[in-house]
Amino acid sequence: MTGMQLTGPKQQLFNADIRQRLDSWLAKYPAWQSQSAVIPALHILQAENNGWLSEAIMDALSVYLDMPAISVYEVATFYTMFDLKPVGKHKLNVCTNISCLLNGSEEIVAHLEQRLNIGLGETTQDGKYTLRQVECLGACCGAPMMQIDRDYHENLTTEKLDKILDGLDQ
Ligand code: FES
Questions:
Q1: Residue 117 φ/ψ region, left for φ over 0, alpha for ψ in the -120 to 50 degree band, beta for the rest
Q2: 33-50 per-position pLDDT tens digit
Q3: Is residue 26, in this structure, part of any structural domain at all?
Q4: Strand (E) positions, the chain?
Q5: Of 78, 104, 125, which residue constitutes the final position of a domain?
């Protein structure tokens, strides 16, 4: 775990680089509302920890933001953009909600499962991909769509999908 020491005084919880980035978010809010920075803070810590959040990291963040640990867990467990167990290098989030379902998301999921030889919720043996279905990602006009890491890919076909994955495999 890079740069995170998860016990000790508040200023020692994270390294200087992480503290600087957390503090830049804290500076956007009144001092008594530090918990308002919880979502960007979770993004920073997740990126520093190979894409997922451990309980120890969330506990340390709760101390850093002066908020109850349970409140950090509530946020981290509510959003599918946060992962609470190790994940692959690339996160493949396929929307299977109504617009995407009506426009072929089942075919997209089946193609990914076959190509990667894993099911939904699983990670490839080489640790490269984690495949998941997610609820509406707010890009219904581009259905069927999926999110790969931080990027949206819309109007998917199996051919288009193969090209995208070929690019990631380079
Ligand atoms: S239903 Fe898929 S993005 Fe909205």
A1: left
A2: 999 999 999 999 999 999
A3: yes
A4: 90-95, 129-134, 146-148, 151-153
A5: 78
Give me the mean pLDDT over the 112-118 stretch.
Answer: 98
pLDDT tens figures, 46-62? 999 999 999 999 999 99
Distance from C-alpha of 77 to C-alpha of 71, rounded to nearest angstrom: 10
Does residue 142 share a domain with residue 104?
A: yes
Cα of 31 to ligand 1 centre, how many Å? 37
What is the extent of the structural domain holding 110?
90-169
d(CA 102, ligand 1 centre) in Å? 10
If one counts every other C-beta atom within 10 angstroms of the C-beta of residue 82, the result is 18
Q: What is the pTM of this model?
A: 0.84
Q: 135: CA distance to ligand 1 center in Å?
A: 7
Centre of ligand 1 from the C-alpha of residue 141, in Å: 8
Mutate to test the pocket of ligand 1, among 80, 137, 154 (most ligand atoms within 8 A of CB): 137
Measuring from each residue's beta carbon to the nearest atom of ligand 1, which residues come in under 6 Å?
95, 97-100, 136-140, 143, 145
Whether 2 is covered by a domain: the verdict is no
